[in-house]
């Protein structure tokens, strides 16, 4: 199986701060990789580099063989990489179904009627068929994030990136969003998920990647990662999480 | 002759009213044309100012700063009386529309820029992540939200443009003020001037009230 995402020697600095210090990471087609680590370890920065929302100084990223770089191809590559943000980033002036239908209409050139049908089907899939005509401001956080997932799915991406999808949610809404994400795992789409939900990570991941201070410290299958971590820093991190 | 007879002389007012209404028509046309051209130009200028390559961006900023600094009356006189020396002779309507919209452009550009910059970065990131191009992002995501924010300041700018049309009287434009001073000279009474002032109020007070209610609604929404 060829790698869907290939990251080689990725370096990024903000001002004087080294956010990523040489990341090498491959993700296979259909694989579900969960990235964990303390705040400021570079997890979010890493996945934001994959669709070039963050520029980087050195290294190379390929998605399905195409290099991700500034230029005329960037929008095409981005259209194949769906992203779900911590703060949802729904378009507040558009109803839920229009949020989902916009990119298929504009980027794929779908006729309006087909785009609406697609949007309503996807909203139904995330359990929101009755909310399709509401503006995002009328929806709960969990519902907004599910709309955002439907919006990302509408472009039929080969890769889905989740940037702390439940961190901005009230606790009682975390479950409904995680359930939707778990339902997408192993349906063929490649997933890279940054999260602090360890139970979820253990359930859904094929592989856990642990990052600290801009580097990948350890990666392993979930059972091994949580029960027999090799690195001292991984053990310290897991201890700190379990400790409270 | 009493005060009322001098300032509110009914026969004089009735006689000058057709002239005043003609003037009001010209004022509204001049204002509407300048506002429309000013909006289109201001949008273009704002996009250059925000997104163009460095030299164009700099040129847009210089234009905006200069046009916001120069007194409109000076610009108007330059356009009408100085341009003919280089062979460009504009009618008084064209000269007034040019000067008014040149200035309105600059203010509109700054208002739109403030609106666009107020849209959270996550909006353009979400659009970029979906593969939307620059033009689609602007048209479908950024501008609809930015325009909503800037309706009150844009309305204020429209009020200013409409008020500034009175300056066109110095280039012999038969707008409301010019017609009023002419009627005043003919009738040897200040009543037409009062009539003109009242017509300006009829035109502009509702707009001023609108801005007030926008602001009240905004305060209520953000409380």
The structural class of chain A is alpha/beta
| Rg on CA atoms of chain B, Å | 21 Å
What fraction strand of chain A? 25-35%
Q: Which chains have the largest interface?
A: A-B, 25 and 17 residues
Low confidence ranges of chain A: none
The averaged pLDDT of chain A comes out at 94
Sheet with most strands: strand arrangement of chain A: 6-7-8-3-9-10
Radius of gyration of chain A: 18 Å
N-to-C CA distance of chain B: 56 Å
Proportion of residues in extended strands of chain B: under 5%
Q: Helix and strand succession of chain B?
A: HHHHHHHHH
Calculate the terminal CA-CA distance of chain A, rounded to whole Å.
Answer: 40 Å
The helix/strand series of chain A, from N terminus to C terminus, equals EEEHEEHEHHHEHEHEEHH
Helix-and-strand structural type of chain B: mainly alpha
Number of helices of chain A: 9
Give the helix/strand layout.
The complex is a heterodimer of chains A (244) and B (223).
Chain A: E1 3-14, E2 17-28, E3 32-36, H1 43-50, E4 58-63, E5 66-67, H2 74-79, E6 81-84, H3 96-106, H4 112-125, H5 141-153, E7 159-163, H6 171-184, E8 190-194, H7 198-204, E9 207-212, E10 215-220, H8 222-227, H9 232-242
Parallel strand pairs in A: 3-8, 3-9, 6-7, 7-8
Antiparallel strand pairs in A: 1-2, 1-4, 4-5, 9-10
Chain B: H1 3-7, H2 10-51, H3 54-69, H4 72-82, H5 92-117, H6 121-129, H7 134-164, H8 176-187, H9 191-222
Helix pairs in contact in B: 2-3, 2-5, 2-7, 2-8, 2-9, 3-5, 4-5, 5-7, 6-7, 7-9, 8-9
What does this structure look like?
- The complex is a heterodimer of chains A (244) and B (223).
- Chain A is built from nine helices and ten strands.
- Chain A has helices at 43-50, 74-79, 96-106, 112-125, 141-153, 171-184, 198-204, 222-227, 232-242; strands spanning 3-14, 17-28, 32-36, 58-63, 66-67, 81-84, 159-163, 190-194, 207-212, 215-220.
- The mean pLDDT of chain A is 94.
- Chain B is mainly alpha-helical and 223 residues long.
- The longest helix of chain B is centred in the N-terminal third of the chain and has 42 residues, at 10-51.
- Chain B is flat and about 75 Å long.
- Chain B starts with a helix and ends with a helix.
- The mean pLDDT of chain B is 93.
- Classes of the chains: A alpha/beta (244), B mainly alpha (223).
- Chain A binds chain B through residues 51, 53, 75-76, 78-83, 85, 87, 89-93, 102-103, 106-107, 148, 151-152, 155, and chain B through 120, 122-123, 125-126, 128-133, 136, 140-141, 144-145, 148.
